[in-house]
Amino acid sequence: MPERDAFEYAIFRIVPHVEREEFLNVGVMVLCRARKFFAARICVDAARLAALAPGFDAREAQAHLDALDEIIAGGERAGELAPLAAAERFRWIASPRSTVIQVSPVHGGLTNDPRAELDKLFDEMVR
């Protein structure tokens, strides 16, 4: 059996009406330090969002999700957070917020393939 390494993940959520605490899972980010892996998959299901919050304009939420995706990717697109290590960017993104875009608590596990873990979590938690 291949060696397994620790990984952490969190789920991205759109919370259209923060006071109601209802949300739609829209993405997953996975960090595996040992394998130098930090990536996300994000997809907003417009029909499910419309069913949860009719009339909610998802364009601004999508812009924020796109910015988070750029921070995860690192490099120049991450702006002021670019110099931070992947683990520091993960922690910054995972910090609690009371906004339309929220992140679940951080969870962990063991994996021998963080990319496959990201795909599996996306299928289970978002699709």
Protein described:
Strand 2 and strand 3 form a beta hairpin. This protein has one domain. It has 127 residues and is α+β, with helices and mostly antiparallel strands. Strands 1, 2, 3, 4 and 5 form a 5-stranded antiparallel beta sheet that branches. It contains 4 helices and 5 strands. The radius of gyration is 15 Å and the shape is globular. Helices cover 35% and strands 26% of the residues. The two termini are 29 Å apart.
Give a quick precis of the structure:
The chain is an alpha+beta fold and 127 residues long.
Record keyword descriptors for this entry.
4 helices; single chain; alpha+beta; 127 residues
Q: Which structural class fits the helix and strand makeup? A: alpha+beta
Q: Approximately what portion of the residues adopt beta-strand conformation?
A: 25-35%
The low-pLDDT segments are none
Helix/strand order, N-terminal first: EEEHHHEEH
Largest sheet properties: 5 strands, antiparallel
Estimate nothing, just give the exact number of structural domains. 1
Number of strands: 5
Task: Report, as a whole number of angstroms, the end-to-end distance.
Answer: 29 Å
Radius of gyration: 15 Å
Mean pLDDT: 94
Number of helices: 4
**What share of the residues lie within helices?**
25-40%
The shape is: globular
